[in-house]
Each structure stands twice: as structure tokens, then as C-alpha cells.
Design a protein that fits this description.
alpha+beta, Rossmann fold, Dna Ligase, domain 1, 5-stranded mixed beta sheet, about 20% strand, globular
């Protein structure tokens, strides 16, 4: 019996397809695309069998995340899709340059707002947007950091529109997660689909741990020859605990909790070991600011380290990402990023923003309230896809609720036109079908910046959905940057 082509019935509609290109250029059946040709050799049963084996492996390895809102199924694997998303060398070159430009500007911005605040004095950005931001930490004013690096590990969320243009959706400068899936997805592909990868020249991702360690070495306190690095985790109940374990192992550094560290009378940080106390110079923390130091922030925090801010200010320890870096990934600050890039770098943005309406501004607020049915509304302080209202797909009740919320607290919201995210062939029980995707490249910044080739491709597993977040049912797939 003839083997059914897995692309039979594939239709990307009016969306840009990551495999076949613009809507008017697609020809899945018999297409000359080399990856499509390779995929066409598989039948759906084989693809599903191999994918089931890969997902069992994820579960057995404990590669899970936590959904706190779902009492019935707290620990889950991130759904894995075995159909890779490819990025050409030319596209990656623009992404690479654009991400480095953006993170360079973000670090300059953070250095400025915790220093002279010249960008505020020059009226490029409103003072209230910075000092009124819930992530602004006055305790960081005047603190000098090695290489002026505030966001050592950044995640830049990108989408591709109908015309094939990459746009920045948001910046992640606090503790961007997901890089462990980038590396594990590649390992899964190498084990489960070696025949699909054979002979394909793809940029590697397995050196991320080494590059991360080098970045943290570079940004440790000056004059320290061999800085001791630790990764500080809230503990086993954190949603990204697997990633904390993974990254500590990849870097070859201790994984510690707050109770494992102490600060002495000379403001030095030490780690408790069975051999005694060992000096710590660099802390890659995965704990939010407010829980980091009960002497300064939340007094009831059991997760942090009393005195760690004293040590930071004394220049005896470095913290990545820096306390207060969250100002830079605020969704309202995001709207000013083209101006921020121009102000600090005197350059136009290589990667454009999605057009954004800031509800704190009178004219933008009026437009948003008049066009709610056409816009995507986002609360500025949320992440993980929570609180988003997609106007074109929302019910009348949801629109009315969004209107009430915006009127009550306009400063808490932005709105954007609905962009038809690009799609990528994704494995379903009915064959390969188009599902919307985004991309999160990871940028490491020490003396200079480096972008991990590829990043995390998240995929909306539900048909028609544009919400790719894992907490909202999204999955992930391997990202191939072609050499």
C-alpha cells in the first residue's frame, strides 16, 4: 500500500509558513524544499510513534514544568513537536544583530536609570514610567556593576508576520526561562530522528552552558581570578526547577537555596559545604527581587539570603540578572524601545516592535477603547500569557470586562493590533497541520553579547490559537539555524 504523504491536507492559509515561505509561494506536495522532501518520506504512524517515545523520555528524565493553576495536573512535560522549525542563515544574521543591538540598548537604559537618569531629564521617556514601575528598585541607585551589565541573560520574544518580517513582541530581562528546552529538544531530535538530521548542517546549541559560565565569570567582581559561581533556586516546588538543575549541571556549578548561603560581617557571601564555608563571588539567581534579601525587601521571605544586597553594594558579589532589571521588560517600557535604541546607540532598530498603544497616554487610550474588538490587550505586569484578551476572538463579555479593567487602571495596559503569527508544520493525529509559532532567542552579555543560535520555538498546539505559552497549553520544537 502506498505511503500517505504527511503533508496531505496541509494548509497554512494566509499565514507565512516557516517551511514553505509566503502564502502565495507554498506548494507542499512535491515541493523542492529539502526538509519537506525528507519529512515526506515518513508516514504519520511512524512520526507519532517516535514522538510518543520522545515524550516518554521527557517524562522519565523529569523534564517538566509546573502549572500552579491546575490542581489536577501540576507537573507536566512541555509538549514536544518533532517537526523542526528552520531559519535561514540570512534570517538568523538579522535576528542576531537585532537582538544584540536591543540588549545593548537595554543595558545602557538600566545603567542610566539607576545612575544619572539622563533619558528622563531629556524627556525621552516619562519619569513615572520608570520610578513608578513595580520593578524599579531605588536600592540600586548608584550601584556600579561590572561592564555595566544588568541583564546578563535576556530573552527576546519574536514573531514573524504575514509578510515574513520578524518583529519583537516583548523583552525578558529578569529570569527568562526555556533555554533548557532548546538544548533538550536538540538532544531528543538527535536520538529520535537521526535520519532526518543526517547531513544537515545546523548551528550547534550544546555549548550554551560553557558560554553562560564564561559570561558569569566576566561579570564577577573585578580582581577575582577564579570566581566561585552558584545558581540560586527557590527550590524543588518552583515551576522551572528542572531548568535550574539542568543549567547548574551544564555549567558545572553548585545549585543552592537561600539557606545554603550566608553573608558575614565583612559583607562577603559564603556557601555552606561539608568541608566548611566557601567564598561565593557570582550568584545566578532564579528568585524574584522581592524574595532575594529579607533585610531589604520582603521581611517574611524564606527563599533569599539576608545581607546579600549589602554584599552587592560593597562590590563583593555579583548577581545575575541584576536586581531591578525587570524595569526593562515592562510592556509599557517596551513601547519606547525604538526611542531608547536611538537615544543610546544613535541607530534605528534592526528589529521593529509590534505597533503598541500605551493606555496611560490619552490619545492611545481613546483609540484602544474605540477598537477593542480589533486589538490584543495585555496587562503590563503579567507574563505567561495571563490576562491577555484577544479582541478578534473574544466574546462580548470578555470585551466588556477588558473595557472596565482598562478604564479602572489604564496605566496597567497596552494594546497591539492582532498579528497573524507565522505557522510551522506541526504533528497532529491527522497529519502535519499548520500551527502558530513564536521564537525566543537567548542573549548572554558580559564584556560583549552572544546569541544562542536558534532559541526556543514555542508552538500553539491548539488549532487556531495564537497563545504559545506553556502555561496556556503551548509546546515547543527544535529550531534549526542552517549554516
Amino acid at each position: 500500500m502506498a505511503k500517505a504523504n504527511p503533508f496531505a491536507g496541509y494548509d497554512a492559509g494566509d499565514n507565512y509558513c516557516e517551511l514553505f515561505g509566503p502564502a502565495d509561494a507554498k506548494a507542499p506536495i512535491g515541493n523542492s524544499n529539502p526538509l519537506a522532501k525528507r519529512l515526506s518520506k515518513y508516514n504519520i504512524r511512524t512520526l507519532n510513534q517516535r514522538n510518543s517515545a520522545a515524550e516518554r523520555e521527557l517524562h522519565n528524565l523529569g523534564i517538566t514544568f509546573t502549572v500552579y493553576s491546575d490542581a489536577g495536573a501540576i507537573d507536566r512535560i512541555l509538549p514536544f513537536d518533532p517537526i523542526p522549525r528552520r531559519i535561514t542563515k540570512a534570517d538568523w544574521s538579522k535576528i542576531d544583530r537585532g537582538c544584540i543591538q536591543r540588549v545593548t540598548a537595554l543595558n545602557a537604559f538600566l545603567t542610566d536609570i539607576y545612575g544619572k537618569q539622563q533619558i528622563i531629564k531629556d524627556k525621552i521617556i516619562p519619569r513615572a514610567l520608570v520610578t513608578g514601575n513595580k520593578n524599579f528598585r531605588k536600592e540600586m541607585m548608584g550601584v556600579k556593576l561590572p561592564h555595566n551589565t544588568y541583564t546578563h541573560i535576556s530573552g527576546v520574544d519574536l514573531i514573524r508576520d504575514e509578510g515574513g518580517n520578524f518583529l519583537v513582541l516583548e523583552d525578558n530581562c529578569r529570569s527568562p526561562s526555556g533555554v533548557s528546552y532548546v538544548i533538550e529538544n536538540r538532544h531528543l531530535m538527535m536520538r529520535s530522528f537521526p535520519d532526518l538530521m543526517e547531513g544537515v548542517k545546523i548551528e550547534p546549541v550544546s555549548n550554551y552552558g560553557q558560554r553562560l559560565r564564561e559570561t558569569l565569570h566576566e561579570t564577577a567582581p573585578s580582581r577575582v581570578q577564579n570566581p566561585r559561581i552558584v545558581l540560586l533556586t527557590p527550590g524543588v516546588f518552583n515551576s522551572a526547577y528542572f531548568e535550574h538543575v539542568f543549567l547548574a549541571r551544564e555549567m558545572g556549578v553548585p545549585l543552592v537555596e537561600g539557606r545554603d548561603l550566608i553573608v558575614d560581617e565583612e559583607d562577603r557571601v559564603f556557601m555552606k559545604t561539608i568541608s566548611g564555608l566557601e567564598r561565593v563571588h557570582m550568584i545566578y539567581r532564579r528568585i524574584d527581587d522581592e524574595f532575594l534579601d529579607p533585610e531589604v525587601f520582603r521581611k517574611d521571605s524564606m527563599l533569599g539570603v539576608p545581607g546579600i544586597m549589602r554584599s552587592l553594594k560593597a562590590g563583593k558579589v555579583s548577581i545575575a540578572n541584576a536586581v531591578g532589571a525587570g524595569v526593562a521588560d515592562d510592556k509599557a517600557v517596551y513601547a519606547y524601545m525604538p526611542r531608547i535604541i536611538k537615544y543610546y546607540l544613535d541607530e534605528e532598530a534592526i528589529l521593529d516592535n509590534v505597533q503598541t498603544y500605551i493606555c496611560r497616554e490619552k490619545d492611545d487610550l481613546a483609540y484602544v477603547l474605540d477598537h477593542l474588538e480589533e486589538l490584543v490587550v495585555k496587562p503590563v505586569g503579567e507574563s505567561g500569557g495571563y490576562g491577555i484578551v484577544v479582541g478578534p476572538k473574544a466574546s462580548k463579555a470578555e470585551i466588556a470586562g477588558a473595557r472596565r479593567a482598562i478604564k479602572k487602571n489604564p496605566k496597567n495596559y497596552i494594546a497591539q493590533p492582532m498579528i497573524q503569527l507565522s505557522v510551522s508544520p506541526t504533528l497532529t493525529k491527522n497529519g502535519l497541520r499548520a500551527r502558530h509559532v513564536d521564537l525566543r532567542p537567548f542573549v548572554l552579555t558580559g564584556k560583549e553579547s552572544w546569541v544562542l543560535p536558534g532559541g526556543l520555538t514555542r508552538v500553539a498546539m491548539r488549532e487556531g490559537s495564537i497563545i504559545v505559552n506553556s502555561s496556556q497549553g503551548g509546546g515547543s520544537k527544535d529550531t534549526w539555524v542552517l549554516r
